[in-house]
Design brief:
The structure holds two protein chains of two kinds. By secondary structure, chain A is of the alpha+beta class. Chain A has two domains: 1-26, no CATH class; 31-93, no CATH class. Chain A has three helices and three strands, in the order αβααββ. In chain A, 25% of the residues are buried. Chain B has helices spanning 3-8, 14-42, 59-78, 82-99, 106-118, 143-163, 166-169, 172-177, 184-204, 211-228, 233-244, 247-252, 265-270, 277-280, and strands at residues 10-11, 140-141. Chain B is mainly α. Chain B has one domain (11-280). Chain B contains 14 helices and two strands, in the order αβααααβααααααααα. Helices cover 65% and strands 1% of the residues of chain B. Classes of the chains: A alpha+beta, B mainly alpha. Chains A and B meet through α1 and α3 of A and α2, α5, α6 and α8 of B.
């Protein structure tokens, strides 16, 4: 058990940061931005707290569920631009 | 004393009763935080499922979760059915982690694990309803306390190691997170001090001559986090409670030197004695 207590975060330390189960809180990793554009490539203002239950966790892959959700929630959204340490820059069109 | 004897070792019940009370607060705060996240998801905000095939949070499900979690926290606080309450609290927190990925946080994970160990710690033998039926001089198992201490050691160690990176040490993240308006060099100093303090805690809490200093440093670190960071004050207070719940365990723990040595007969006889058994093993 004690071995697992140290081995799991040790392995997490070797993974892409921040990693879950690594106790890497407030380590400065995982910065990112999300921009929503309309058909004319103009930025759409929106409150993060209106669409997300909390600040997006840095260890999550934001390209996975975020674009689909924002496209559904913001009527004029046409493109979601995500810049995240974990995944780099992604430009994802709404279907 | 052989390692198997460590499993039989029994100690003063008060430090773990103190840990139980602080962990009841940490559980309550963490359940409230997770319920807020899950409730928002149930209301239509972004969902990040762990198992996409399983149903997501519903308003009723979140209410049940909240009630169960808070009942477990109250039971821990008053010392009623503490083993079951700690196990229920740990399972509830683990369930939240499996319900949606956005509930994850290091303090959530820490509380989940500490409560799992606490479930075996007989933590209701003092300062609670369960203590009324406990005979004077009753003792409690030490091994769950050992796991709680090693868990918090891992927390401090890897929190420090992960902060040894150019971005954190630049001071910019702290400058962004804290409400205090200081020059950058102050935040850079604070970043280095944070890493040094966390490394110190990981080591010094185990060293008898240093552990009192480590406790002071730990209280200072957590107070600084709670007071200095601009957001999540209640959540960070819960994290502080979970981490500091082990401090008395460190201060009162049996000496480690004897764990892998053969035990003298006198010490064997005293291992079942209350409170001061640890000191006779020195």
């Amino acid at each position: 058990m004690v071995l697992a207590q140290f081995a799991v975060p040790a392995i997490a330390l070797t993974q892409e940061k921040p990693a879950r189960f690594g106790f890497q809180m407030y380590s400065g990793y995982g910065v990112g931005t999300i921009t929503v554009l309309d058909d004319t490539d103009a930025e759409i203002d929106f409150e993060l707290s209106d669409v997300f239950p909390r600040s997006l966790r840095p260890e999550l892959d934001w390209t996975r569920y975020v674009p689909e959700h924002l496209c559904a929630q913001l009527p004029h959204a046409a493109t979601i631009v995500i810049e995240q340490d974990l995944t780099g820059r992604s430009t994802l069109p709404c279907d | 004393m052989r390692l198997s004897d460590a499993l039989d070792l029994r100690v003063d019940p008060r430090p773990v009763a103190f840990a139980r009370i602080l962990l009841s607060f940490a559980l309550g705060v963490t359940v409230l935080e997770a319920s807020a996240v899950l409730g928002s998801i149930a209301a239509g905000k972004l969902q990040y499922p762990v198992f996409p095939a399983l149903p997501g949070p519903t308003p009723f499900g979140v209410q049940v979760y909240l009630v169960v979690g808070l009942i477990a926290a109250v039971c821990l606080l008053v010392g009623l059915l503490t083993g079951a309450a700690a196990a229920t609290g740990s399972v509830a927190l683990a369930a939240a982690l499996l319900w949606d990925q956005q509930t994850y946080s290091s303090h959530h994970l820490l509380a989940t694990l500490l409560l799992a160990y606490l479930a075996f710690a007989e933590a209701g033998r003092r300062w609670g309803v369960g203590a009324l039926r406990s005979p004077p001089g009753a003792t409690v198992r030490w091994w769950p306390q050992a796991l709680m201490m090693t868990q918090v050691t891992a927390l401090y160690l890897f929190a420090a190691l992960s902060k040894i990176n150019p971005r954190f040490l630049s001071g910019h993240p702290l400058q962004e997170w804290m409400w205090i308006d200081w020059p950058l060099w102050m935040f850079q100093s604070l970043a280095f001090a944070t890493v040094v303090t966390e490394l110190f805690l990981a080591v010094a809490l185990w060293i008898p001559r240093l552990r009192a200093f480590a406790v002071v440093a730990g209280v200072g670190l957590h107070a600084g986090i709670v007071i200095g960071l601009a957001e999540q004050t209640l959540v960070l207070t819960g994290f502080a409670a979970a981490s500091m719940s082990t401090y008395w365990l460190f201060l009162s723990r049996p000496p480690l030197g004897n764990l892998f040595r053969s035990r003298p007969p006198a010490a064997q006889a005293s291992s079942a004695a209350p409170a001061d058994a640890a000191h006779t093993l020195d």
